[in-house]
Write a structure and sequence with these properties.
This protein is of the alpha+beta class and 163 residues long. It contains four helices and nine strands, in the order E-E-E-H-H-E-E-E-H-E-H-E-E.
């Protein structure tokens, strides 16, 4: 990647210690641990029945149809993301590792290497909305429901190359 060090407010993030690799099915249990941890920390709007549904669908229906990547640091996997042809579909960081630069590291790869600029974000997740807006994304659209027709409004965001 060649990013080197980035200094956030009082936090030094060493991107050189992070690696991104393509995930395979043996990573799915850890991916689901990350997903569950992150969702519990950020998706307080999600109904328990939908949480359980997504927990079943993600490893069996969604991940096999997407390009899935994990971020590794010192042999651990603190984050993962998945993309379709032109959309960032998921980006989750384990709750214990939030704020350590893994999301920014992933976005750098997604934007600059994969050249994927779109993401849909739950409107009810202000932390995620704020994260993407601060990274240079702009709202391009809105949906009242998510992709499964559930009552979780989505903001359709796109990265602006000319911030």
């Amino acid at each position: 990647m060649g990013i080197g060090y980035v200094y956030f407010i009082f936090l030094r993030v060493d991107f050189n210690s992070m690696k991104i690799r393509k995930a395979d099915t043996k990573d799915y249990p850890r991916i689901m641990e990350i997903w569950e941890s992150s969702v519990k920390a950020t998706h307080d709007f999600l109904k328990q029945e939908d949480f359980e549904l997504f927990k079943k669908l993600i490893p069996n229906e969604f991940l096999p149809k997407l390009n899935v990547f994990v971020i590794e640091e010192d042999g651990a996997i603190p984050a993962f993301f998945s993309v379709s042809d032109d959309n960032l579909e998921m980006l989750f960081v384990d709750a214990e590792n939030r704020g350590k630069g893994f999301g920014k590291f992933a976005l750098d790869y997604i934007i600059n290497t994969l050249q994927i600029y779109k993401v849909d974000v739950n409107e009810q997740n202000p932390q995620a909305v704020d994260f993407y807006l601060k990274q240079g994304y702009q709202q391009k659209g809105y949906s009242e429901t998510d992709g499964m027709g559930k009552p979780y409004p989505l903001l359709h965001l796109e990265y602006s190359i000319n911030k």
